[in-house]
Structures are given as structure tokens and as C-alpha cells.
Amino acid sequence: MIQYKVAIVGAGPAGYFTAQALQNASNHERSFAIDLIERLPTPWGLVRSGVAPDHPKIKTVAKVFEKVAADPNFRLFANVELGRDLELADLIDRYDAVVLCTGSTKGKKLGIPGEDLANSISAAEFVPWYNAHPDFADFNIDLSGKVAVVIGAGNVAMDCARMLAVEAHELDSTDTAEHALTKLHDSEIKKVFITARRGAEHAAFTSPELRDLPKLEHTDVYINQDDIDLAQTRAAAEAEIEKHVASNLEAMRLIAESTKSGNEKSMHFLFQHTPKEIVGSGKVEAVLFETPNGEVRIDCDLVITAIGYESVPYVGVEFEKGKIKNTDGRIGNSNVYTVGWAKRGPSGVIGTNKSDASDVVEILLSNLEHPKNLGDVTQLLNSDHLVVDQNYWQRINEAETKAGEAVGKPRIKGTTVASLLNLGGL
Ligand code: NAP
Predict the structure, then answer these.
(1) What range does the domain containing 280 cover?
(2) Distance between CA atoms of residues 424 and 46, nearest Å
(3) Which terminal residue of the chain has fewer beta carbons within 10 Å of its beta carbon, N or C?
(4) Atom 9, ligand 1: which residue's CA is nearest?
(5) Which percentage of the chain shows pLDDT scores above 90?
(6) Is 348 exposed, middle or buried (0-12, 13-18, 19+ CB in 10 A)?
(7) Residue 59 alpha carbon to ligand 1 centre in Å
(8) Do 218 and 292 lie in a common domain?
(9) pLDDT digits (tens, 9 = 90+) for 289-347
(10) Is position 413 within any domain?
(11) What is the CATH number of the domain that holds 114?
(12) What residues are in contact with ligand 1 under a 6 Å CB criterion?
């Protein structure tokens, strides 16, 4: 039996699905010893710090991740950062293959005047803040105004808008970060605009997410019926309307026709609104949009940009257009591969990473030679380095879920590296 050693960097969905694909490729002739390296003390990536707290079903995929982790040939090395605690070159030397699943964490910028005004923030800050990502424990957002504008027409924009537009008590039974929950309870935001630069037929929302909106009990959601009719006409004039577009337009029509209950909180979709400038003296006061009917000004107190993400580059890898330069997941002719958003850019749902991982692992397998047997990550870490291994993580996980159970939540998350390490400490 030959055993290969594979290091995976990044314990999000792409990392776990890569480990799973390798486990599935084990047979009576070969097996894979997998070391999963993660910068934070907690694994699960976007399942923990991206998925909206009011969408808990999406997070059940974590059960799959924990099953992968239960394999005796799997080891977790969390609280270990590439570039800080060890170098990529050291991994390349020691492992038969290295797979980079480091995602894309930086919010894309609009590149318009006023973007850096106070209270003009990115979804790449807002989302991890309400999900208790330790990097955003001290993030400051001012929710004392009445109107928010979210820029972008994708599911992240919708998550951001919904988190602001539901009543905070609806989030009490979720795993929203405690600091965010407190702030959302004090929030004065009543009206949230979601703005798309193109017509409704081009929106990147997916229809299940749209179909959930009329079900909101304490939020009225508005879409202008004319916007849907015009989108339908334009789309039909171009070609046969694609299934997902038809489904989206139908879901939007249901929103347009939904009964409004006169709720204090509301969400408003605006199409063909291209942001031109964010105005304000020192702090956000309005956004100027170009529309088919000329310039439109929307007075607001908060702007959240949700227009996609890019990877933060690191040493030893070439990045291009916001992702790792690669061919079908392989980096040059090396034993280094990439899967997930770092490979293909920020697109697709969590499950997309499963097929992505399988495809890349197939290429990885075809390039394997004799096992190196040159050691592993344990040789690279200082003896006093506090590694969060699978047992340590399980203690954090249990402490969080136990604290949540007591108050009817799935978990209460630790919000800093120190508090997380403390939760799992013996
Ligand atoms: P996305 O789906 O790519 O949407 C980005 C949006 O930003 C698009 O509407 C795009 O409009 C707009 N945009 C880009 N540049 C812009 C600019 N300069 N000015 C104005 N608008 C601009 O990205 P995302 O929302 O970040 O989501 C990332 C991925 O995660 C997606 O695949 C999404 O479905 C997935 N996700 C899924 C869920 C879920 O299943 N519940 C939740 C969250 C995220 P154009 O089309 O005009 O470029």
C-alpha cells in the first residue's frame, strides 16, 4: 500500500471537498494522509463566516465536513497561518501535493468618488462581522440612520439587505455574532435599497433566495412590476429566455404582487441604477445613480458594496485578475493545485466546490509520482505553537453549541482568536 501526503491550505468548503475527493480516490493500492491547514482557530470557512445566520439549512453541509475529518488519515492544523507560521515552499518540499483553497476575501471596489467615506463599507466586512469572524470583532458600523443602500444584485447583496431589513428579534434564535445582534437591536435602519446596474433579467440572485422574501413576516419587499415586464420583453426579444432567468423573473413577479402589511421595515429593489458617486461630507449622505431616466439621488446613511470578491495575494504564488493563476486547477507544472474561489473566482454555491474539487483531484492523481516521505507540517512549527487539532476544534464546537443550547440558538460563537482558543482549552 502506497501512502501519499497531501497538504490542503484553507478549511472552507473547497478544502473539505478536496479532502473528500482524495479519500474517495483511496483504494487497496493507495491512500492519502491529509493535513488540512487553516489560519483561524475554527474550520468551515464560509459555512461559518459567510452563510447568513437566518439560512441555517445551508450550514448542515458541515456534517459532511466533520465526516471527512473523522477519517484516521485526516489531521486538522488550525490556528496555523501560511506566510506567518510556515512557508508554502516548505510544504511543497514535504508533500506529494499541496492544494490551495484560500478563497477570496477582499471585496471588489466600485472605483467611484466617495467610496471611502465613513459608513461606506463592503460586504466583505459586513458579512464576516455579523458572522463573528475574529478579524472583524472591532469593525465599526453606524446603524443610527434610517436608510441603507446595498450596491450589487447577487445573493450576497440580498443577504446584507435582509440582515438589515428583518426585525432584530427574528435573529435572536440564530448564531448571529452577539456584538452584531446587539447593534442590530439598536438599529434605526428602516428602508433598504438593493440596486442593480442592469435590468432584472441580468440579476445574479438565485430564485430560491428571491422566493423566500415574500415570506418575511416583518418586512415589506417592493419590486416595481414595470421593471419585471420590461425585463421580460427585453429578454424575450434577444433569444429564448433561459430557465434560470424565467424562474428569477417569476420569483420577482411574486414579490411585486405580494401583499404589503405596512411593516416599518422594507426592502426595495431598483434596477438599471449604475452608481456614479457616493456623496457626503465626512460620512455617507447619498448615492448618485445613472439611470435610463437620468441621474437619481438616493439619500442614505449607510452604503454596502456587494459586487464580488478577489483573493488577497500571498508569497510563492502568482495571482492574476483576483485569483490564483492556474490551468484547470494546476499551478504551472508543479505539485501545487488550487480549488474553489481562489481557483475560479467568487462564483457558485457551496456545492459547486464539490465538483470543482473532484475535477482538480483527478488531475492531481494523474500527476502523482513516488511518495516523497520527507516529513510534514509538524517539523515546520515552533514547539510552543498552539495548533488547534480536530480534538481541540471539537471542544470549541461543543462549547459554542452548549452555550447556544441554553438560550435556544444553534451556537454562540467566540468572536476573537483568544476567546476561541480559550473555549477549547483544557
Ligand atoms: P455575484 O453573484 O457575482 O453578484 C455580483 C453583483 O455585483 C452582480 O449583480 C454584478 O452586476 C454586480 N456588480 C459587479 N460590479 C459592479 C459594479 N462596478 N457596479 C455595480 N454592480 C456591480 O456575487 P456575490 O453576490 O458576491 O456572490 C458570490 C457567489 O456566492 C455567487 O455565486 C452567489 O450565488 C453565491 N452565494 C450564494 C448564496 C446562497 O445560495 N444563499 C448566498 C451568498 C452567496 P453585473 O452582473 O452587472 O456585473
Answers:
(1) 109-307
(2) 21
(3) C
(4) 153
(5) 97
(6) middle
(7) 20
(8) yes
(9) 999 999 999 999 999 999 999 999 999 999 999 999 999 999 999 999 999 999 999 99
(10) no
(11) 3.50.50.60
(12) 55, 110, 151-157, 159, 196-198, 202, 204, 206, 209, 275, 306-308, 346-349
Q: Is 405 helix (H, G, I), strand (E, B) or coil?
A: helix
Residues 278 and 360 in one domain: no
Please check whether residue 407 lies inside any domain of the structure.
Answer: no
Task: Using alpha carbons only, give the angle 8, 10, 11 rounded to the nearest 5 degrees.
Answer: 95
Torsion of CA 170, 174, 178, 181, to 10 degrees: -20
In-domain check, residue 43 = yes
Of 291, 307, 323, which marks where a domain is finished?
Answer: 307
| pLDDT computed for residue 239 by the predictor | 82
DSSP 8-state code for residue 321: T
One domain for residues 332 and 376: yes
Of the residues 307, 336, 355, which one is the last residue of a structural domain?
307
The residue assigned the cell 504551472 is 332
Instruction: Tell me whether residue 343 is in a domain.
Output: yes
Q: Are 257 and 280 contained in the same domain?
A: yes
From the CA of 156, how far away is ligand 1's center (Å)? 6
Confidence of residue 131 (pLDDT cuts 50, 70, 90): very high
CB 305 within 8 A of CB 109: yes
* Residues 131 and 261 reside in one and the same domain: yes
Quote the pLDDT of residue 183: 98
Query: How many domains does the chain fold into?
Result: 2
Tens of pLDDT, residue by residue over 18-51, are 999 999 999 999 999 999 999 999 999 999 999 9
Phi, psi for 150 (deg, rounded to 5): -105, 130
Same domain, residue pair 238 and 320: no
Q: Whose CA is nearest to atom 29 of ligand 1?
A: 347
Is residue 9 within 8 Å of residue 101, measured between CB atoms?
Answer: yes
Q: Which residue has the cell 446587539?
A: 182
171 in the same domain as 64: no
Give the model confidence (pLDDT) of 178-210 as tens digits. 999 999 999 999 999 999 999 999 999 999 999
AA identity, residue 39? R
Q: Are residues 125 and 267 in the same domain?
A: yes
* Residue (of 207, 127, 202, 118) closest to 161 by Cα position: 127
124 CA distance to ligand 1 centroid (A)?
A: 12
The rounded distance, in Å, linking the Cα atoms of 177 and 190 is 21
Mean local confidence (pLDDT), 68-79:
98
State if pTM tops 0.90: yes
**The domain that contains 14 carries what CATH number?**
3.40.50.720
